[in-house]
Amino acid sequence: MRELSLHILDLVQNSLEAGAMIVKLEIVEDLAADVMLIRVADNGRGMDEKLRQLVIDPFVTTRITRRIGLGLPLMDMSSKRCDGYLKIDSTPGQGTIIQAKYRHSHLDRPPLGNMVETIKTILVANPTLDFLYHHTVNDRTFTVSSREIADILDGASLTQPEILIWLHEYLSDNIANLYGGVEE
């Protein structure tokens, strides 16, 4: 996958397929420490220790739509290539936490990608999902939740064109502010 945002979409899809109703996405970019950390936590069905160890094998997948699962193996490979790691903590019946760490300045680190479209896709495609996005770049932080957006919209659908435009601008402005007002 060329962008980390595509990995994030894959991780959220894995959470949904595991029955998660709550998904929390955290991204930390600490330039002084030269770290990029991506964490996706859910309250899905979780995995036992055997499956947890197997999911980084591309020929192991719980999906029935295809026989090969590449998301976690590719993220594991890219994080290790960038002096980082992929860590999976999971408890059956409680959920899973996937954490990937990269050396931020590493030449081979994939770009983060279009987080505005990534967050919009997650929110619009999953209207009942309790989703929290928390992104930190050095000392700047942006947090948004599906609950917060639902309160702002007071029952209006995210699929309405004027609301999609508002959501795009809201996310664009706040994510750009993380980088000093300039989109990455």
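the 2nd protein, sequnce then structure:
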Amino acid sequence: MKRYVALLRGINVSGKNKVFMPALKEGFEQLAFEDVKTYLNSGNVIFSSHEDDIKKLTNQIELMIHNQFHLDISVFVISKQDLLDILHNSPQWWGNNNKDIYDNLIFIIPPAKFLDVYNEIGEPKKELEKIENYKEVIFWSFSRKDYQKTNWWSKTASANISSKLTIRTANTVRKIANL
């Protein structure tokens, strides 16, 4: 039995794509996943499965969400072990509790790749934000007071590639990894 994390993209944002966590948990349990837990109201689900195929897990979850909630949303599935590896390999400047900096982890939903994201969004503004790619994520930090001036802030939500990204804060990712 392997532990996984599913990150649902774009649910419960500004009253759109409403999904209640108890119903989501029940949907995961109906897929025969075990020890299902949700974290926050933003589509973070931790579960166990005997399945090793991430693509198969992702397809099962997306189909269940479509059938149960009538939503066509992207889901990023990662093993807990791989998530811990990502956190272990975070850059020194990321997630260090500096209150002036906002630290995020951008999860790239396959088949998209880092270069697809970078080519569409472009170069970060070096004086305001930093990015670093590792495997299927991008560590992204920026100044809280100047976030609207960054290159990546508006583009991660409005670019064509945005449907292939789901973003979590450093604190949220760490808590999920410890559940």
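The chain has a mean pLDDT of 94. The two ends are 16 Å apart (CA to CA).
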